[in-house]
Design goal:
It comes from Micromonospora thermarum. By secondary structure, this protein is α/β, with parallel strands linked by helices. It contains ten helices and 16 strands.
Length: about 350
């Protein structure tokens, strides 16, 4: 893979950009957003810097791109954090000033629709960070989850290796942001079930690429993904969103990656625990188990066809479930299927 640069890290007391390049949900849920900002200040010691579109829903794509470019250009800002995801960041990245981004690399944190931005920075040769959300994770009801917070702190402030650990509890049923009375209550959590390993027992080292599977499919359709040769040898990360794509859709998306020649080039695949509940689709306990099992079978089926020798790990706490571990996108990862250990270099 082409060489990627780790940007310099912020320090406690620094100014960091807080942007909404996708959806301006802080404008709709100010109490949740202010809670996230308060934890950013009080618990992480960072000073948030807002931009004109941070609290604006439906802001013009060029204005959002202008804010993103300005965040990278500002020499007093040492990191950039997305407030939340959305669904149209693919229309924003073409308006970015790539020369500014290349000349001023900074750690960028986001997930979900922010896969667009992570992939864009990857193509510019800049390591970014899959995970972190001012609304979802710093603004989490009750308190920021300790596992999320420890991973986020390490990713923000350190450059060392960090061992990922399975969560002892997890959830995918957040409290309703419309009901501010729930902000002091912990969301529903379930006992952790650990990771599930498949494939050969060997150690794989590489650089991370991937993200939200639905968004990756959009990027492939828009021809925004690097050539197969440039991604060969990457450790592929995939996770699915609150839209709860069916197992058939998941298989077909992965099949398309296989037909493109991509899926077979990844020596290891890390699969996020699937979110299996949403306010519009409140699945029951048995339905949630069935959804997760069907998705795992779909991923297994695609890999059996296109990459049967890959090391595979299921149910990582990445993406749309709670807690959320941070991954260095384009950064180093070691997947040890012998000792069943995953380490990333922040």
């Amino acid at each position: 893979m082409p060489t990627l640069r780790y940007p310099p890290k912020p320090r406690p007391g620094d100014r960091v950009a807080v942007v909404s390049p996708s959806a301006g949900l802080p404008g709709l849920f100010p109490e949740v957003y202010e809670l996230g900002l308060r934890r950013l200040r009080d618990d992480l010691g960072l000073e948030p810097v807002e931009y004109p579109t941070t609290r604006v829903m439906g802001a013009d794509t060029r204005d959002r791109a202008r804010d993103l470019t300005a965040a990278f250009a500002d020499p007093t800002v040492t990191a950039v954090l997305a407030t939340v995801g959305g669904e149209d960041l693919i229309t924003v990245t073409p308006h970015l000033d790539d020369a500014v981004l290349r000349a001023n690399p900074k750690p960028y944190f986001g997930y979900s629709d922010n896969t667009n931005m992570l992939n864009h920075l990857h193509r510019l040769g800049i390591v970014s960070y899959h995970g972190g959300s001012v609304l979802v994770h710093l603004g989490r009801s009750g308190a920021a989850h300790p596992l999320t917070f420890d991973s986020l702190r390490a990713a923000l402030f350190t450059s060392d290796w960090y061992d990922l650990t399975p969560a002892t509890e997890w959830g995918d049923q957040p409290n309703d942001w419309n009901d501010t009375a729930t902000l002091d209550r912990e969301p529903v959590m379930f006992p952790g079930s650990g990771w599930t390993w498949a494939g050969p027992q060997r150690v794989v080292e590489g650089r991370i690429w991937g993200g939200n599977l639905e968004v990756l499919h959009w990027l492939l359709a828009a021809d925004r993904v690097a050539p197969v040769a440039d991604l060969a040898g990457a450790v592929f990360v995939l996770e699915t969103s609150e839209e709860l794509p069916s197992a058939t859709e998941v298989f077909r998306m992965l099949r398309n990656l296989g037909e493109r020649g991509l899926l077979g080039t990844f020596p290891a695949v890390l699969v996020g625990r699937p979110k299996a509940w949403e306010f519009s689709r409140p699945l029951g306990a048995a339905e949630k188990v069935a959804y997760a099992e069907e998705q795992r079978a779909a991923v297994t089926r695609a890999l059996a066809t296109y990459n049967p020798d890959a090391v595979v790990v299921f149910d990582l706490d990445i993406g749309h479930t709670d807690p959320q571990l941070i991954l260095p996108y384009g950064g180093d990862v070691r997947v040890d299927a012998v000792d069943r250990r995953i380490s990333v270099r922040y």
